[in-house]
Design goal:
This protein is α/β, with parallel strands linked by helices. It folds into 2 domains: 6-55 and 351-382, Urease, subunit C, domain 1, CATH 2.30.40.10; 57-344, Metal-dependent hydrolases (TIM Barrel, Alpha-Beta Barrel). The protein is built from 10 helices and 22 strands. It has helices spanning 77-84, 102-114, 154-163, 178-187, 201-210, 231-238, 255-265, 315-326, 330-335, 339-344, and strands at 6-15, 18-27, 30-34, 45-48, 53-56, 58-63, 65-66, 69-70, 90-98, 123-124, 127-130, 166-171, 191-194, 214-215, 243-247, 270-273, 285-289, 292-297, 300-302, 361-364, 370-375, 378-382. It is globular, with a radius of gyration of 20 Å. The mean pLDDT is 95.
Length: 388
């Protein structure tokens, strides 16, 4: 066994087959053994997880900022975001760019390209461009002056694909030229979600045929549900294929609506996201979301008009909220923040504990409170300041 191995012993480990009390051995950043640790040498790291739940590291598909830093407004915020997110159990994430200028989008592409990364921080999996091809009628907190129609993005989309770092794009499928944009993106390996939209069920089906995989923050910034005009919400809840992310903070979506979504989508298709703004991990005050200012207080993060502008939601809290709102099991809720988002991205090396997968772990106590986060087998955050 490698002398630099990390052994996590005695924990209740969340495996694809269920919870098993066993040990894990991680070396060179990967899980090498699931089973009783052997040949534990004095200079190996041995973490006693007795009485703890050992889960895959959490994956956030929509994170705009953290620690007072907004990624759209300042691409250098990637450093702050990566360092802060492990304290919420997040080991990998998609830094998200809201509707902005082309210069801002290019700056964010270059920031990800230049991010060397390190083993003591959450790892960006690529960019999430939320906009600029979204509905003017459902713009939310985005800047309407910066919206761009899908045909005007054709050449830029080619740049996104060629960059190799754009992982997810959210757009409104009902816009003129959107189907062609979905085909262009999906054929280039970029995952496409619908969002900020008024799409009908027929438009959802056409978008799916073109490659659409999911829906961004179901219920929020989209046409409302009606029994005669079900709109995007009805289209998604009646579909048996599409995945959908939910901001499970009790502010963006009422717990009853979360329960409805859970019953319709289940643990394989409901994705927990934070949609965190720069307010995450910060005290109440004023923050930025792109070019717009927002106020973070007890009512959430809102523009001066009262429009929600991201959240201050920690993803581990979203997991606990989902359990409280729906009565689902801890394993099901964790899957909505681990395996389900990994599957949407087509990643089998994260979001699960398996031999060969990355050694990214979130370790919880019996109340599902985060105690430790590991990235590539290295403790990057611990409730104990000395990491013991």
């Amino acid at each position: 066994m490698s002398a630099c191995a990390t052994h996590v012993v005695g924990g209740d480990v969340v495996l694809p087959s269920g919870i098993v009390r066993t040990d894990l051995t991680i070396s060179s950043g990967r899980i090498r053994r699931i089973g009783t640790a052997v040949d534990v040498e004095s200079h190996d790291a041995v973490l006693d997880a007795s009485g703890m739940l050992v889960a895959p590291g959490l994956i956030d598909l929509q994170c705009n900022g953290a620690g007072g830093a907004d990624f759209t407004n300042d691409a250098a915020a990637i450093e702050t975001m990566s360092s802060i997110l492990p304290q919420f159990g997040v080991t990998s994430f998609l830094p998200t760019v809201v509707t902005s200028t082309k210069a801002s989008r290019l700056a964010c592409i270059e920031a990800i390209r230049g991010f060397a990364g390190c083993r003591d921080a959450a790892q960006p999996l690529g960019l999430h461009f939320e906009g600029p091809a979204i509905s003017r009628n459902h713009v939310g907190a985005h800047d309407p002056a910066l919206l761009v129609s899908p045909p005007m993005l054709r050449d830029e989309i080619q740049e996104w694909v060629a960059s190799g770092v754009v992982a997810l794009v959210t757009l409104a499928p009902e816009l003129d030229g959107a189907i062609a944009a979905i085909e262009q993106l999906s054929s280039g390996g970029v995952v496409v979600f619908a969002g900020h939209t008024a799409m009908s069920s027929c438009e959802l089906q056409r978008a799916q045929a073109a490659g659409l995989r999911g829906v961004t923050h179901l219920f929020n910034a989209m046409a409302p549900f009606g029994h005669r005009q079900p709109g995007p919400i009805g289209a998604v809840l009646a579909d048996d294929q599409v995945a959908a992310s939910v901001i499970c903070d009790g502010i963006h979506v009422d717990p009853v609506a979360v329960r409805v979504a859970w019953r319709a989508l289940g643990p394989e298709r409901l994705l927990l996201v934070s949609d965190a703004a720069a307010a995450l991990g910060e005290r109440h005050g004023t923050v930025k979301l792109g070019r717009r200012s927002a106020v973070h207080d007890e009512s959430g993060v809102r523009t001066s008009e009262g429009v929600l502008a991201g959240s201050a939601l920690a993803l581990d809290q979203a997991v606990r909220n989902l359990i409280d709102f729906t009565g689902c099991t801890a394993i099901e809720a964790l899957g909505a923040a681990t395996t389900a988002p990994a599957d949407v991205l087509g990643r089998d090396d994260i979001g699960r504990i398996a031999v060969g997968a990355r050694g990214d772990l979130a370790i919880f106590d019996e109340r599902l409170r985060l105690r430790r986060t590991l990235v590539a087998g290295v403790t990057v955050w611990s409730q104990d300041p000395e990491g013991n």
